[in-house]
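Handout, section B. The chain below has 111 residues.
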Amino acid sequence: FLTPRILFMSHKKASDLIMGGEGSVKLFGGNYGLQSVFTGAYYRDGYARVTDAVIFVAGVKVAGFRIGISYDINVSQLNAATAKRGAFEVFLIYEAEDSKPQKYTIPCDIY
């Protein structure tokens, strides 16, 4: 499955726009509750729409949790401050089930 994702954050004069997507493969009968594996790439735009970073991610989905690792590569002028090295990040995200109420049809003799 391919999943596009967009995240926009803003606070006072700072803002971030992260766009990208992930590809995932469902695991049927996976051990230890493994549901799927995923990998993807994102693009981060920073303050004043300055291209900031490219982000690569990989991980697994287990019992409603997304567990993974990402690597950010600076492509802006900030790469001089980081000696052109990126940064690894580890993440744990809980994805809740859909909370929309189910619609039920109840037969009625009057209508």
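Note. The two ends are 42 Å apart (CA to CA). Compare this with the example in section A.
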